[in-house]
Amino acid sequence: MRPILVTGGTGQVGTALQQLGPRFGVEVVAPGRDGLDLASPPSIEAMLRSRDWGAVINCAAYTAVDKAESEPDQAFAINAVAPEMLALETFARGVRLLHVSTDYVFDGSKNGFYAEDDPVAPLGVYGASKEAGERGVRAGNPDHIILRTAWVVSPWGNNFVKTMLRIGKERPQLRVVDDQLGCPTSAVDIAEALLTIATGKGPAGTYHFVNAGEATWCELARFVFDRAGMDVAVEAITTDQYPTPAKRPANSRLSTDRLQQTFGIRPRPWQDAVGEVVDALIRGTQ
Ligand SMILES: NC(=O)C1=CN([C@@H]2O[C@H](COP(=O)(O)OP(=O)(O)OC[C@H]3O[C@@H](n4cnc5c(N)ncnc54)[C@H](OP(=O)(O)O)[C@@H]3O)[C@@H](O)[C@H]2O)C=CC1
Ligand SMILES: Cc1cn([C@H]2C[C@H](O)[C@@H](COP(=O)(O)OP(=O)(O)O[C@H]3O[C@@H](C)C(=O)[C@@H](O)[C@H]3O)O2)c(=O)[nH]c1=O
């Protein structure tokens, strides 16, 4: 297969894609921001023109959920404007675009797991910018895959597991919200799903990929300390007791039925995936 271009090569999913490329027998080219700046249209155009790409996977994003509330222009530039440009540039070259999106496009009011066609209604700037990015991708390139995922964890970059391990070393007691439900998901598993789709022939459209099961942030924190063998007491609190600039959905669990039926991808339980990440971080092997 022709090489795959990955944006955001220094991020969690971008790093995982580079690691998994050889297993799929595909060359993954994953520049960081210095090699491909999504805020710069000439940079995007030049990179798209530089090779005969087999697919483009857009993993670059403005992911600072709280900071986005005070930097909406920056968030929309990377999460909405750039994906539309990527869509137009890939369409012009007959290249499929795989675009990663988020559970935060939903408002959390559903009683159950969200399906792909459920109405979106983001609560904050980050979610709104990602939702606008989805629309840009759909409008710009009919040959697109929008893969929504959630609560990404890995040994790389910033994520909740790394935050917990860091704070847990400094304090014996933590307070973590227990009324936001979601699906913790490994960046490696997302990368595997993306490469399965990119190297296959399934139909374009919007899909969900998360690890199986569900948890609150509090349950996830307790799992992490248990797995790490750390004696940290985690007090369950409500969202009201942990005020943040951005509102987050109370329920952002995603159904993966469509992805399973279309691509035969079977997500493993989040405990297996997150456990692997905790083990790697404790061993310091990544
Ligand atoms: N993290 C999560 O919990 C979730 C993430 N997602 C989505 O998954 C995708 C991947 O997320 P994840 O790997 O966690 O993200 P990270 O925050 O780990 O990485 C984001 C990447 O985007 C890059 N980036 C930011 N601005 C630019 C720019 N102007 N030009 C080029 N690159 C830029 C960053 O580069 P630099 O290192 O230079 O900042 C980094 O490589 C994103 O679309 C995100 O919205 C969806 C659900 C949950
Ligand atoms: C650090 C900390 C956080 N929290 C709460 C705040 C928040 O409600 C929840 C998660 O906090 P974080 O800020 O780490 O996670 P957050 O940045 O909201 O994570 C999101 O990132 C974006 C990119 C996504 O797309 C989402 O899927 C999701 O993964 O935990 C506590 O209750 N106690 C704590 O000590």
UniProtKB/TrEMBL annotation:
Cofactor(s) the record lists: Mg(2+)
Source organism superkingdom: Bacteria
Coiled coil stretches, renumbered: none
Keyword Hydrolase found: no
Domain RmlD-like substrate binding as annotated: residue spans: 2-281
Biological pathway: Carbohydrate biosynthesis; dTDP-L-rhamnose biosynthesis
Cofactor info, note text: Binds 1 Mg(2+) ion per monomer.
Keywords: NADP, Oxidoreductase
Molecular function as annotated in GO: dTDP-4-dehydrorhamnose reductase activity
UniProt catalytic activity: dTDP-beta-L-rhamnose + NADP(+) = dTDP-4-dehydro-beta-L-rhamnose + NADPH + H(+)
Entry EC no(s): 1.1.1.133
SUPFAM superfamilies: NAD(P)-binding Rossmann-fold domains
PANTHER family from the UniProt entry: DTDP-4-DEHYDRORHAMNOSE REDUCTASE, METHIONINE ADENOSYLTRANSFERASE 2 SUBUNIT BETA
Family, as annotated: Belongs to the dTDP-4-dehydrorhamnose reductase family.
Function: Catalyzes the reduction of dTDP-6-deoxy-L-lyxo-4-hexulose to yield dTDP-L-rhamnose.
Record's protein name: dTDP-4-dehydrorhamnose reductase
Source organism of this protein record: Sphingomonas tabacisoli
